[in-house]
Amino acid sequence: MAEGKVLGIGGLFIRSADPARLAAWYRDNLGIAATQSGQPTPDGEWVWMQDAGSTVFAAFDEASDYWQADRQIMLNLRVEGLEALLARLEAAGVAISRREAMEGVGAFARVHDCDGNPLELWEPA
After folding, report:
1. Which of 98, 97, 77 is nearest to 29 (CA)?
2. Which interval of the chain is the signal sequence (predicted)?
């Protein structure tokens, strides 16, 4: 019998002046099956099947300077092979704005999508 509990994140929805361009940016640069609302990917996919793993769901103080103040959220993506991904992103003209490592937690890098939304790429330790 269902107990009425949340199992995980079911979707992420981002407003954009050019949703087709934004979805293509995520597909082309990060390999995510990102779609324009109501449309499948060019390969006919409707969802992104991701590997199971940990998810951090954290509220930050409104005065935090961890990412730009004009954005209410920052997407953190769990990755494998962070350095290889960063090399591909840089080759595609995507700027890496921040890199850091936290002992026992992993390595992090900050990029922004084509609409300026902050993305944190995290390779767990």
Report:
1. 77
2. none
